[in-house]
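Following up on my earlier thread - several people asked me to post the actual chain instead of describing it. Fair enough. Here it is, all 406 residues.
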Amino acid sequence: MKPVICACVVSRPSPEGDVDLSYILNHLGEDRERYFGAVVPPIMQSSIFAFPTVEAMRAGFADEYGGHLYTRGNNPTVAILRKKVAALEGAEDCLMFGSGAAAMAAGVIACLAAGDHVVCVAKPYSWTRALLRDLLARLGVRTSFIDGTHEDNFATAIEDRTRLIVLESPNSMTFEQQDLASVAQLARARGIRTICDNSYATPLNQSPIALGIDLVVHSATKYLNGHSDVVAGALCGSEELLRAVFKGPYMTLGAILAPHDAWLMLRGLRTLTIRLRQIATTTAEVLAFLQGHPLVRKVYSPHADGNPQLALTQAQLRGASGLITIELDVDEVAAVERFCNALQRFLMTVSWGGYESLAMPVCAVFPRTTPMSGAATPSLRLVRLSIGLEEPDVLIADLEQALRKI
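Reply from S.P.:
Thanks for posting it. Predicted structure:
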């Protein structure tokens, strides 16, 4: 049966009412009268900004968050992008970073001190896990990794020193989700902050802040930029929280987004709704093909027929993205390699969310001698596909011929 997937919406509900996405993407923050009526915002490729008087410079130092003193803190081109991403997420403000990992790290570090405890979902992005398990553990922060698909596990894991809950819904490999509203309610009742990676869904298809989450992270490298030519991250939330992030890890660590990269992201955002609509439509057809193929043991997708969280998908997500992970029905890594090596329209690489279709075999991360399945590693039968803007029949034909090579 062909799955029914909502591609994406052109306006979405928010606490303030309907959001005009076309206005946000094309006009919000542009202030064209300040730039000679230029339709496209200029790239403010300046590291520093001058002041006419000492008093004006003193004011610049006093509020670098809201002004322009040094591009390591704030930059006019980046500021336009901040406004747009914040509006898309329904947040008061946004900080842009040089990567999604930097955005997550800054948000997490700003919420914690030595001796604190974190609750995190069991299978977050690898660098989020490394941040919590390796780096912050050296500084006296403990983390409990739990199965976040069951709400009761959060309440069980919370301790007296728990200060933060880290969520990723859905994650980007096997797409486990958390009931964001329920977790947010539990956390706020106990004075615990929440942060959620929303990269898979994008602001078009999920609104964690509207569900009560404090901070929202994006690997803006993915769908927000959408052209595989910028590495970027976004952190959205209240101005109060983001000012604390700005004064702490943002300014201290300096993982900023360059003005030219911000300008490329502004260009990428113009087509966000169109790209996601096409990607979701194609993904539905590819998903239907894969779910019926005898050489595919299992298909992972929030919208897959066999997803045990399908009801949560329908309640929490407004639409689909282009990620699908397949588990091939094979007994050796060489068969997985034959499939991947035979693909002609899927580029074999890391990341996802661009205009091009991609394939990421899990087995490439591990030595060839690694067992096919084991407690210490995910199944080496897994191959993640990122569906791009190619026509669905072209991608399905390519998958079909590659599956025959197994």
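The domain at 272-404 is CATH 3.90.1150.10 (Aspartate Aminotransferase, domain 1). That should answer part of your original question.
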